[in-house]
Structures are given as C-alpha cells and as structure tokens.
C-alpha cells in the first residue's frame, strides 16, 4: 500500500509520514468545467492531481484528495460560468474548504502544506483560506508554513518556445488550448478526442467583465484558443518543466531533503 | 467518451444528457478518514463513488465528482476526528459546498439531484445544504426535486443475515468493519490488506459525546468492529442489495424511465 | 431564591455556584414543533427542561434557559418541517447559538457544560457548535470539558420492555408517541388530552429524504406512532431510567461529587 | 388547551389560529443577564413574555416562545457583558435566529409578526433579522407585515410621573431599577427579594464605551439605579400603560379587529 | 507630507507614528444617506472625518480613512432606508469591516483604536466588530485598548442651550436639522444651500418600527426637523464642545500625553 | 450643488439622476496600503476616485463614495500585507460590502453599476459580490446590468511605449512605480515627494506565494519598481488613455448616450 496519494494509504503508513521532519502535503485544486468538445469536464482536477503526483515523487511529499470543484469560471480565463457543464463553488464555500482542510493537516502534524492550483479563478479564494488557516495555526506552532502556486506559472521561456513555436499568446486564452490538451494527451490520452478540436482563432477578450455574461463574447467551442497544435510530446515538455521547477521552488522555500532535481 | 461519470464526459455529450426529460445527477459524498491499518483513507469516497456508478447505470443518471472530504468524524460512528489521517470539513464549508453544487446542477437544467452519502456524519449537513438549494431553486422552477440517502440504509434484512451470519450489531460500529471491507474487497481489492486486520471485539460506545475526545474510548485499531468476516462475495451481496434498492427507490420517487430492476 | 434553574437565581447566588470546583451547567435543548392533536407545540423544550432539572438535582448542577427552537424537523424523526406549528432554525443560527452560549458559560468560570438534547434533529448542529466552543476555550483553559447527549439514548432495555410491552419499534417513530406522551402525562398532565390521541399504526418511513417534502408520506396526525399506550406511570419509569443513567454518566465522565445514584 | 402561548397549544388549534385573517404572532425577546442581588437572571425574558401575553389577550394574537438569550449586555444600559451571570449571543446568532423564526411564521401563514423586545441591546440586531426576513417574504406575499418595539418606549408621561414621583432619570439607568423591579413584584413577586436591594445613587455613565470593559465604572450591585421605590402597584401602572399603548399601536398599524382598548 | 489623515502620510512617516508609545488611530464612521434638499448625501462621513481631524490634532492621534457607508437608515433616526440616495450596508458587512480594520491597526502596532461615529444606526454593529477584534487581539497583546463613541453624545448642556435657544427636542430628530447643518455650514459651507431648507415642524415619530416602512410617516423633506436655525457660529460652538470633550475623554481613558484641553 | 460625486449631491438632484433612462453609477475601489516613501497610503483610493470622476464626466454617470479599504495586499502585486501601513479587509467583508452597496444602487433605480477598481488584489472578491448582487437583482428587474474593470487594463500599447520608453515590464511590478506615481504627480502633486523615490531595479518576484510572508523577498522601499521615470506629463498620457478607453467600453456595453469620445 505505498502511494504518494494519501487516499490510498492506510492510517499507520500515513501516520509515519506525517511524523517525519519537514513532512509536506500537496493539495491539488481543480474545477468541474466544460473544456470544449474534445476534452472532458474534469480536466483541471485531473491535471493538478497528476502534476502534484509527480512533484510529490520528486520531493517526498504526499498528495491530498483533489478539490474537484472550483470557483466560478470567468469568460476571460475559462469561458464563463454560464456554460452547461461548468459547476462551481462560490467564494465562501471554497475559502472555507481550504481553511478547514489546511487547518486539519497542520494540526495532524504536517510541517508544510502546498496548494497546487489547476484552475485560474481559484487562486485568490485559496489565498484567503490559506492565509487564515496558517495565521491561526502559527499562534501555537510557529513552524507551520505553506506555499500556494498555479502550475502554469512554472513553465519557463525555453519550454514556451518549444510548445508554442508560432508564439505564445498568454495563459489567459489557454483554456481548452494547447497547454491543457497536450498534458491530457500525455496523461489521459483516452479522454481526448483530437478529431473534435475546433480550430478557431484565439478569443478576443475584453479587458473587463460584464454581468450578466454575454455568451456571444467567447467562442462557441467553449475553448479560448485552438488545441490543434497539442501533442503528447509537448505535454511531456510541459510536465517536465513544471514539475522540475515546482520541486525546485519547494526545495528552496521549505528545505525539503528528498528533492533530486532532474532538468529534462 | 461515454461514461456515467460526468468528469469524463465532454461538454457536448453532457449538454445533451442534461437536456433530457427527467435528467438526474447523483452526487456521491464521502470523507478522508482513517479506516484502520488494513484499508486506505479514501474508503468512504471510493465506495460512494462506485455505488453511485452502478446506480447511475441502472437508472440512466450521471455521477458528479465525489465530495472527497466530509464532516468531522465522531467516535460513535467513525472513531473520532482526533485520529491522524482524518481530515474533515466544518459544518459551514460542507453545507455551502452542497448548496453551491446542487444549485449549479439545477440551474444547468437537471430535473433531479440525488445525493448518495457514504460517510455517516455528513447526513445532516448535506440535508441543510440540499434543503436550502432546492427551496431557492423552486421559486423559479417548481419541477426541481432532490433525494438524499446513505447507502447502507438500503441493505435489506435478508442480505444482513447472509453478510453477518453471527448477527448484525448495528451500522454505528461498522466503521472499518465487515460492510466497508467487503465492499472494498470487491471494488478495490488491491487497496485492502486483510493480513493487517485487527480482530477485536466490537467497540462499546457510550451513548453520548465528550469534548475534547478521549482517544482511549475507541479501539486503537481505528475500527469499531473486526473486519475479519469480510469477503468479496459478501461485498457483492451488499452491492447488489444496495444498488437494486436505491435504483428502485429513485424510480419510485422520480419516475425515472430507464431503471431495470434486477434483484440479485 | 434557591432553584436549579439559573434564570430564577440572583447574581450573587449564581456567582457562588460558578466559583465552585467542578461547577456544571446543563443546557436543555428542544424545539417548537407540532406533536399531534393531543399534545402542545412545546413538548420537546418542556421535556428536556424537566429532565435537566432532575439531573441537576442529582448532580449538583444548574440548568440554563432551554433552547426553545430547534433544527428543521424531518419526516423520518419528527414528521417534517412543512407542518404548521413547526417553527425551526437553520444550521447556522442553531450552531451559532450553541457556540456563543457555551463560550459564555466557560468564560464565566463553569468547569463543565452539558447539553441535554430533546429534539432528534438538533444533535449534529449542537455537536458543531459545542466542538468549536470547547476547542477555542481550551486554548486558554485546558480544564474546560463538555458532554452532549440526547435523553432517550439513556433508556435501558429493562425499562423499554416495561414501557413497550408489545415490543419497542425504534426511537425514530417515537415522535408524539408513547415516550413523549408518557413523560408529558407525568410532568405536564394538564397539557395532554388523551381523548384526542389518533390510534394509527406506526408510520412506515422511507430510508431516504426527498425535497420538497411530500406531506402524504407521514400520518395526518402529525405523530409517527400511536400514543395510546402512554401513561404517567410509564412516564415515571422513563424519567427515572433516564435521569439515573444520565447522572451516572456525568459522574463518571466529569467526576461530579454530589451525585447520589438511586436506581429506581 | 386554550392559551395565548403557542407552546401550550396543540397543532390543530394552532392551525386554525394561523388561518384566520390578520393572524398575528408576538415574539417576546429577553436576555439571560444579572439583575443585581434582588432579582433573578431571567428578568428580561420573564417580563417580555408576560407583557406579550397581556397584549396578545387584548389583540387576539398568540405569543411565541420567548428568546431567552440576548445580545451582549453593555455598561451604559445593562451593566456590561463581563459580569458573571450575563450569558449573551453575538450579532450573527441573534440576527439569524430572528430571521429564521420570523421567516417560518410568515411561511406558515401568519399575516403579521410582532417582536416585543425586553432587553435594550437586542434592538438593532432584531431589526436586521426582521428586515431581512420580511424583505424576502414579501417577494412572494406582499401582505406580510411586521412591527418591532421595546416595551418601555410605550410608558406615557403621566405614568412616568406616578412611578417616578421624584423625577425620571432616563431608561438607560433603569437596569435592575424601579421599572423592572416593580413589574417583577407584580408578575413574579416570589422571585424578588426587596431586602437585598442596594440603595445607591444612579450610575454616572460615560457617553462612550471602552474595550475591554472596566468593571469599576458601574455599581458593584449590578444595577444602574436603586430599586428602592419599586412596588407591585407601580408595576400595575406600568403594565397597564405599556400593554394598552402597545395594543393600540398594533391595532392602528395592523388593523387588528379584536382590540378593546381599556385605558387604566 | 505631514497630516493627521493617514491616507496622506507616506509609509515611513506612518511607521514612526505607529511605533510611538500610546499611539492612537481614530476611525471616523459615517454613511451615504439623503439629508434633505439643502445638504449632500455625504454629510455623516464629512462630519465624522472633520471632527476626528480636530480631535486628532488635540490628542496626537492620526485619522484613518472614513467609513463612507453605514448601516441601514431607520425612520426614527435618519428618515429610513427606503429613501432614494440612502445606500447602506447590512450588519455582517459593517461588522466585518470594523473587525478587519481594527484588527489590522492593532497588529500593526497601534496601542489604541478609537471609533468616532457620525451615523446613529451604526453604533451597535460597530460595537460588535470592535468587541470581537479587541477580544482576539488581547489574547496576544493585553495592552490593546479601544474606545467607541458617537460625537453628538459629547455636546454639553450649556452648548445645547446656546445652539437650541428655543429648547432642544432630542438627538433622534436632528437628522438633517440644526446640529448637522450648522456643522456643515462651518466645515463645508459650499455644500449647503440654506435657501432650500424646508421649514417644517419636528417629525412625530412612532415609538416602534414597521416593516416594510411607510414613507408617509416621516416628512417629505427627508429631514426630521427644520434646519432653519442653523448657522456657522452654532457649528463652531458644537465643534468646540464636541472636540474638547472627546479629547478629554480619550485623555482620561487612554492617558494620551499630547492632549492640551482648551475649553472654548 | 452640481458634481459627478454623489456624496456632494443633494437628495433631490440625485433622485432626478437615478430616474433617468440608462442611469449609471461608478463605484471606485482602492485600498489603504503603503506606497513607498514618496507617496501616501491612500494612492489606490485617490486614483480610482479621480479616474472614475473623469469617466463619469465623459459618460454622464455619477461616482459613488470610494471604497477606501481593499483586500489583503500580496507580495507579487503590492508588496505584501505584512507591511506597516497596509490595512486590509478579508474576503467576506469586501465581498459583502460590494454586494450590499450594489444591491442598494440597483434597488434605488440605477440601470447600470460600474465598479472601477484601483487595487489589483480586489478584483476577484468584487467579482463575487457583484455577481451575487446582479443575479439577485435580475430576479425582479432583468434590465439591471453591471461592469467590472481595473483601470490599468485600458492602457493601450501606444501609450505604454510613450510612458515606458525603455520597455514595459508588466503591471505586477507597477506598485509604487511609474504608472501610479505619474498619475499622482498629475492629480495630487502635493502628495508626492520625488526626492524620496528609491531608485532600485524591478523586484524579482517568485511565481508563487508563501505563508507567512518573508519580508526580505520584496524591496525594502515597499515599491516593486522604481518611480524615477514618473512625470505629470506621463500621468496625463495615462489618464487620457484610460478614461477614453473605459468610456468607450462603457458606451459599447451599456449604450450610454452622453459619451463623447475624445482621444487625446
């Protein structure tokens, strides 16, 4: 019963891990959200869980059950919350979940909590829950520390150039695009149907939000750019770049001992 | 890309399902909780997800991503929230999650929401969230309906006698016992290690709770009864009994058309 | 001005009680809920207050003002929240009240708080409020302790056999039945009209809840079983059994000194 | 089983009352708070309940179970929340209770809800809960109406001169003084011990609050003025003045038909 | 860059102030509320800010950004929340703002926080937020202290006689009346148009509130009394009285060293 | 008494504006946050208020009182919440404020609400409050609409090149830099002291957040880039670009009639 995923660990094995010096748990967070006709609704949760798994192996951490639901999708980063299939949490529920789960891990004895986010709109609400949980925990245990990150922020320039040879247009329009599709082709190829990719130009997004949302403002495909250039090879480049850099960052901040950096 | 699990469906397939008359989504709810030395922390989520999957196939429903975290474990039904590995939500976060997710499914167009609970302590907090969400939804759509159930409440007397030939002592002490272990042996045998089962007498539980909890009041194994009698065969008996009866109940209450009852 | 009910005590007498070693306050919790045509809406509050009073005399505790409103009545235990007369609190208000009142008693100096519940649906929400209040209080005073119980869980088998000579069918259908009516006949006989008892078979309850509720699923009387067998004598048997056992439990857990157990 | 107190009514009688045109329920609100050495902690709840009962008889209303706990006592009106015996709710719990209970009464069918307050510090928090509940209720039922009042605001000048022949110094220092003590001597004489009245000059209150409170700023008696001048006769004058004026106000605002004004 | 208003201070200057012994920040609180045809919507915020500024100069304190929005205006003190122009917060938002801002100032190092209120209906909700913030802060820093006041409570009898030569009728009807108008004529004369004052008798207010509000119950002008007697001279009398007395009170409670009392 | 700032308008003038077809209110949101040694703590509120004023003049809107406090400052966009002078709201208070104020404006009769944000970290929490308020408002008034924007997102490429002739490095490091300082030099020159600008290289920010924050990771100046290149001329370029583009966007989305675009 060995695994980096704690839902697969028995209580005794888990207890031993928590008791180690510098013990670290990574919480992957995703969403239930439409990702166009070629990918399933669970993309964000699947990717953050898989990436967390690789990082955990590199760093000696364990991975908590993924947050399968995320904050309301927004047109400028995910197409919008009005699309069928997108099933979201409000701010209070998401922030409360983060606070409760992080508080529980810190009180059980973990020295560090890392939240690895895979859904753009989650970030600020996770920040609030994590800030509240760590502030409270440190009243009695000043060694408690936490890190919050979104995985795509760790893709370096060199990798970007390889994955987007025609130029990278920004993370905001990557919803259902080359990044996510390439990673899915690598990690869950049976859940991607490239024949259904809609090859349209990148969405032209307004620099503001309107309420209520206007469905005509984003592409009918539900994606903000075309996934046509996606491939498992590019997925591997992205996965290697992200996990190596995240592991290095955690090692640097948290002085984790088991990290062995292997730049691909 | 066909599946009863909506996280595996693309947005177009999903949209077609939601638009069907009488469309039904089942939300499985579990917990992250120690289940002794012979089973992993994710038992409650794994079982409610698997059972929901079978019910969905019988009834033509789809299954939402499982709620992997549940309400605080209590000594009289789960061993207690103080045990390492048990990672829980408070009332507000759990109730808020249920409210948000159910509201979203109803507003997307589902006619019915079913919550299939797999962690005893969740029930009342799900009730609150579900009651609030349905009450609000029905202001504008009086056809919205919902059902809440815990799966073990559907095991009939005949099955109980087969599974517990020496007498059934009550669901309260089944945490980590024959019921859950048999189902896991059937559904996830690679995650159970029967050689680590601690064979102790059923826990003698007080008819009250104390705060703070006293760890000495429940067995050191983390289980409330011995799983020694568990087997995949008994798991099959339980699974058949539960899913047949749940499907029949949903058919009766919601007039679902695709149900084909097959009493095992 | 001597009384076990603190609302009847002057501030000086009360202050002296709080300052005693091991000082204990019992908070009775009930509901405002229909109890059929033969009993008043205030049954749950009246009974929990009266039982708390007897327990307080046996143990040297004082009794706080009863919580007269409770959580939403449910069909499987109280007939349902849709019935006229049933006036309920949501989860947040009930949990918040428990937290505030318990926190206040602990900060005033009580060593122990006991919540004696008289309305089935309250239990989990009280648990949440009590858990939160005690956890916070123990940051500064590790001697603070609390107990939570529902009074009917203390009726022993021998008493059950005497009170239900034809067999006991479960607490869930006792709403407005023999237990509550017998206790009311003993404690508030002028508020019971046995000529109005509706003598129908026990309610057949589904093992699940539906939203919105279907009024046709529970008996029109508002009771879940017949109170025909109720009597003041049976009320006395129940009261003695409950109060003796509760007092013994509190003595055991809290080491109260003034308990004199007198098994009836 | 006839009574103006709904906790004493059976469900059938109650249902008939609710269904009447212009049906009105009065919710008395009090507190659990020290009232000096000569009166019990429950004064505010006892008085608001008794006054509501008389008003109900004059107007044909029924009285809901009293809110026995109130908002934090403040030095300028009640001596302060730091005094032993004073057991208070925070804003969220009190406001939530009001909202839930009022919403329930309106949805059951009452045309009017009246809240009759007996604890100064409650007023604004009740206002918030009542405003929220009525605003929501009126979306579907525009005939729903509510009234909020504190009973002492209905004592007329002529009565004040009779009750305070040496001059009335303001309601703010009446905590534990002549008003409350006279009403208690009339309504619950066995709960008052006039021999324990501390005869001190009226408290000199600062026109501001400090945090944390300074216990030395209010009289050690816990009262803000002397109750020496209290008598049951004065209690009768006050009760008559209040109930007559409140009944007249409700009649005027709500067009209640059963009011028979009898100025004492 | 010297100012008593901290929004005008650079971070270095501000840091030095916070680090001083006995450092004090005054938070002025107002509202956005109609004040009749002769004064602007921002009166309450403008006056509390200006008064706080004078008090800060007398006492060596700094002034935080004013709370420009306040609690729901009520007919008996502000005309009512139903009037166009009145833009209010509910209880939770106002209380939360106070709690967060006060907690932040105390954690930055201020020894004292003073809230100077300029909108009647705010008081109790500020009390709740301030009580919660100070209680929490004192767990780690027992020197933290706070004061809450409404500025009009500091006008002495002699000043009242000068400002209201025909007799003072009570603060409750001063909304848009002589007090506020005189202070505005002194502090922001360009924002007052005395030619538009509606000279009507004082509003006759009921001693209770009704829900929903009846617009006919308060004067159509939006003011509760006539501002005809207002003048800048009277504004000066009021300002001097208030600021001198507030400064003296703060000096007395908080032992501020820089106060130089100059009774006008 | 004419002004675009509604706090300066009398109730009658304001009422007439609200009643106009397509009436629009702009709510500027800022923060109280350190902005280095050369600018005051109120920069964000001052700038969003001033920009909103210009936009209001271009579009015929009015401007609501600025939100002077914002969400917790973060190192990657504002230096961090741990810096003295930074005084922040948590998520619940900020979201609640937005919800309450927007709901009030819509219920008073405004057709459109625009929130013009001036503090990076506010955006998602405003989104939540605005989404909730508009969703609720549209149940009864389907014409209600809202827009949310941060002003810097409207600076076009041509302007960027003029303002940052050596290359623009990203909005994230503009805290206390050329953008904000140039605008302050234009709008509030007396509140800027260019002699105190610390000329350091742009901050190198990590692509993640840590808890608790490490003060050593951002420049000691409190700014994330040097303001040396700031000038009032550049401020004018920025102001013109922003206000012209924002006005055009509002015109396009809301069909405002009074807009006269004048590209500077």
UniProtKB/TrEMBL annotation, chains A, B, C, D, E, F:
Nucleus keyword on record: no
Keyword check for Metal-binding: yes
Residues forming coiled coils: none
Keywords: Hydrolase, Metal-binding, Zinc
GO molecular function: creatininase activity; hydrolase activity, acting on carbon-nitrogen (but not peptide) bonds, in linear amides; metal ion binding
Listed cofactors: Zn(2+)
Pfam families in alphabetical order: Creatininase
Any GO BP: creatine biosynthetic process
Family matches, as PANTHER family: 2-AMINO-5-FORMYLAMINO-6-RIBOSYLAMINOPYRIMIDIN-4(3H)-ONE 5'-MONOPHOSPHATE DEFORMYLASE, 3-DEHYDRO-SCYLLO-INOSOSE HYDROLASE
Record-linked NCBIfam families: creatininase
Family: Belongs to the creatininase superfamily.
Designated name of the protein: Creatinine amidohydrolase
Organism, as annotated: Paeniglutamicibacter gangotriensis Lz1y
